[in-house]
Amino acid sequence: MEPFHLTATGYNLNYLPEYIALRHGFFREQGLDVSVNIPTPWDGVLDALADGTADMALGGIWVPSMYRDRVQHYTVFAQIANRCPLAVLRRGPDGAEGFQLGDMVGKTVLMKSGGGASVGLFFKMLLREHGLDPRTIDYIQDLDGVMLGNLFEGGMGDYYVTDYLSALAMAARNTEVSIAMEMVTQGDIPWSVYYRETATITPAIRDAQRRFCVALGQGIDWVLEHDAESFRDELAELFPNVPVETVVSVTNSFRRNGMWTSTSVPRAAFDRWQQGLCDARLVKEPLAYETIVDNGPAAAQR
Predict the structure, then answer these.
(1) Which of these CATH numbers, 1.10.630.10, 1.10.1510.10, 3.40.190.10, 3.40.640.10, describes 86-185?
(2) Which pTM was predicted?
(3) Full DSSP string of 104-134
């Protein structure tokens, strides 16, 4: 059995197919002994790649993009999350009815940033895509998610952007707030990907990546083939700190709305995100797909 160590930026519901692949032995069937750690702070994933203690990192593609030609070259070889897993909370009931992003102009939006820049990057990109200037909204985003959640429930701000699981849990326990938008419905984007330092990739590593993609693809297929209600006990074990009804609901929403599709990074979604990163000044110009994505391991597993 070949050790294959993953360092991840977090533990999230949008990584569910990976957890299923681990629990159901799909990686072991491919001869891979996959282990996982989550460093604190999250950018320790880059240290683990640099010192060779990790074979791959899982996180946002914005990191390999902004590091390119500045600090380090990374190659992305697979995707797990094909959609943004965030939600917008607002004050009052029935938040989704009649809500438009333009309603947020002139208001204050809380956005967590402790786990990286993805939340603000995606939200402001979405505003620009809808013809709205992000500068017309005030932001509080330099605090962690737990603190911002408590402050929002206590009365700070008008809207709160956080992960969908946390948002639905908050709305379930607090009738004074509601879900205004599920961002999983807002189009394809390579939200979470697997990558490695380009210079360290060998034919043997690439073969292990291919086998990893085979197992991960089986995990994706398994989740898509099973209504979340049918494996609620497993979800309860994976996410014990959230009411299982909430986890089941979000999982099925993700299943319906294209969160998980395949291990390949879609080209159009990549181009969309690159434009967002360029507009945010993380890259000077949108990167070409082949610059940082090697779709070979994912394509070979089909």
Answers:
(1) 3.40.190.10
(2) 0.95
(3) GTTSEEEE--TT-SHHHHHHHHHHHHTT--G
